[in-house]
Amino acid sequence: SLTILIGVTKIGESAFSDCKSLTSITIPESVTEIGWNAFWGCNNLSKISCKNTTPPKLAYEEDTDGYIWVYVFPHNVIDIHVPTTSISTYQAAIGWDYYADFIVSL
Questions:
Q1: Are 9 and 35 in contact (CB under 8 A)?
Q2: Distance of CA 28 to the CA centre of its chain
Q3: Are the C-beta atoms of 81 and 104 separated by less than 8 Å?
Q4: What is the pLDDT of residues 59-83, one digit of tens each?
Q5: CA neighbours within 13 Å on the CB side: how many for 94?
Q6: Considering Cα of 98, then 78, then 50, then 90, what sign does the dihedral take?
Q7: How far apart are alpha carbons 72 and 13 in whole angstroms?
Q8: Cα 43 to chain center, whole Å?
Q9: What whole-number distance in Å separates Cα of residue 79 and Cα of residue 76?
């Protein structure tokens, strides 16, 4: 598991990509942005705890048809834990909406 230190504001592009031993991460309130492929390929990552009440901006690309492509977390993430009062905000945020069915209370 990994806990990002309080005070970190951005998790950079490909910061932890392909880290196969990573099973859970805790992201503090200070993180406001998560880069492209930050956790992509972390195929054993099953739990994300994000303590920020405002969803951090996720890197994404929009194609010519208006489809949003998000490659931040692997597609096999089981649970994304967020503050209870922020669940609907995360579920509606660009990028986070892809994971809407997996967003639950901290």
A1: no
A2: 12
A3: yes
A4: 888 888 887 778 888 877 779 999 9
A5: 12
A6: positive
A7: 9
A8: 14
A9: 9
With left for phi above 0 and alpha for psi between -120 and 50, is residue 79 left, alpha or beta? beta
SS3 98: helix
| Alpha-carbon span 41 to 17, nearest angstrom | 5
**Residue whose tokens read 């809407």:** 100
Q: Residue 26 pairs with which residues in a beta bridge?
A: 3, 49
Q: Which two tokens stand for residue 79?
A: 């649970």
- The amino acid at residue 83 is P
Q: For 14-37, what is each residue's pLDDT tens digit?
A: 999 999 999 999 999 999 999 999
Backbone angles phi, psi at 16, to 5 degrees: -125, 20
Sign of torsion over alpha carbons 11, 14, 16, 21: positive
